[in-house]
Amino acid sequence: MTATPLARYSAWKRRGDFIFLSGVVAADPTTGTIVSGFSDLPEGVGPTIGQTGEFSVDAKDGPILSQTWFVFDRIRMTMEEAGGGMEDVFKLVQYFRNLSDFPRFNQVRKLFFPDKPPVSTVVEVSAMMPSDDILVEVEATAWCPVKR
User: What topology is assigned to 12-143 in CATH?
Assistant: First the structure.
């Protein structure tokens, strides 16, 4: 499932060779659920992003690691729908409820951008839609020439 708007706006728009993605959060508007931990991800993803199997560690790190993976996976799928890929993303704006989550976020982001990370802006905000359970939101800009 690609990034789906939570309200009346477009998930992405192409303008010439540029693709602009709206901010993506770890919420599924079709089910009304927000990713809150490793159990909300597809089987096998948790251990690849830091799941330890230790309750106290996973309870603390699981929400930001899981939401980060979900957000970047939706960006990946949306980029594919738009005719590109993660390698076309050159700019990210990342909004955090708490900047102390950035190191764990960055650990997962590296999985989606293993070679050259996009330029980025990081901002701490007081709240995000649709719920206080949202820890991170990411918007992306890509350069992906139209195939002629």
Answer: 60s Ribosomal Protein L30; Chain: A; (3.30.1330)
Residue-wise pLDDT tens digits, 63-85: 999 999 999 999 999 999 999 99
CB atoms within 10 A of CB 139: 17
As beta bridge partners, residue 78 has: none
Helix (H) or strand (E) holding 62, with range, is: helix 55-81
Residue whose entry in the numeric block shows the structure tokens 């951008």: 113
Please, what's the b/e burial string for 46-64 (b: 16 or more CB within 10 A of its CB; e: otherwise)? Answer: beebbbeeeeeebeebbbb
Q: What's this model's pTM, rounded to 2 decimal places?
A: 0.93
